[in-house]
Specification:
Length: 257
């Protein structure tokens, strides 16, 4: 093929080995000129013989499963279990599952969100880091501290709900938080529980406290809080543990004095 130009020689090297006429004009020209050169016809005959041998070679069932749509494995069907366990399919499935879980968590958080939730979570961290020495020792019933908060700190409506009013205290303090404002923190003897009282978030348009009905839960790093709103003040009972540790206190009827 030395007498062919470089372009025609390249086309002749990849010319179809079938006897059918090439559809491309330049390919037909290259084949036509190559046939005049000694050795081209012999090479094509050899290529056709090899192709015929390859087509006659049987394909193992394992290989056929990977080519269900190819002529070489016509009629072969891949088992659905093997398809599902393929690494690529498994990776896609795991990724979709993670996305679904994250989306559900975000949706669930939005469904259970309430005004002051961000501050409540922040105070869970405060509860986790508070040492007993940081509180002023005080042994009394939690319900009696509202007078102390008003007389000493001028804090109105910092009232402990009846569900926790009879619990014995071991310490108390009042501190300022950049976001929450003045926060009252009470430490109880019962299960090392802590109580927090802090102002509710106010509506930017009306200026009124944003409140809600009933108890709402917040959880973070093994700590759980139950939050209630009353007269513009949020009360939160905190315990180190799951919701079930707080549920009995919220469900129990308050004792009469």
């Amino acid at each position: 093929m030395k007498r062919l130009s470089r372009g025609l020689r390249t086309l002749a090297d990849c010319a179809p080995i079938a006897n059918a006429k090439a559809p491309d004009r330049r390919m037909r020209t290259a084949v036509s000129r190559a046939k005049r050169i000694e050795g081209f016809a012999a090479q094509q005959s050899f290529d056709r013989a090899v192709a015929k041998l390859v087509q006659a070679t049987p394909v193992s069932p394992e290989i056929q499963e990977w080519f269900p749509n190819e002529k070489m494995a016509e009629g072969a069907k891949r088992n659905w279990r093997k398809t599902a366990l393929h690494p690529a399919i498994l990776a896609i499935g795991i990724a979709l599952a993670v996305i679904a879980v994250v989306a559900w968590i975000k949706f669930d958080e939005q469904m259970h969100a309430f005004p002051g939730m961000a501050t409540a979570k922040k105070l869970l961290n405060v509860a986790a880091m508070t040492r007993p020495s940081e509180l002023e020792p005080m042994q009394t019933e939690a319900g009696t501290l509202s007078d102390l908060f008003f007389m000493k700190y001028r804090l109105e409506h910092y009232d402990v709900p009846p569900e926790f009013s009879r619990q014995r205290t071991i310490g108390v303090r009042v501190f300022d938080d950049d976001e929450a404002g003045q926060v009252a923190q009470i430490s109880l003897a019962e299960k090392r529980m802590q109580l927090f009282l802090f102002p509710a978030r106010r509506d930017s348009k009306t200026g009124k406290p944003e409140e809600f009905e009933g108890w709402r839960y917040v959880e973070q790093e093994g700590w759980t809080g139950a939050v209630q709103a009353h007269k513009g003040i949020l009360f939160m009972a905190v315990v180190r543990g799951p919701k079930k540790d707080l549920a009995p206190y919220l469900a129990a009827k308050p004792q009469l004095r």
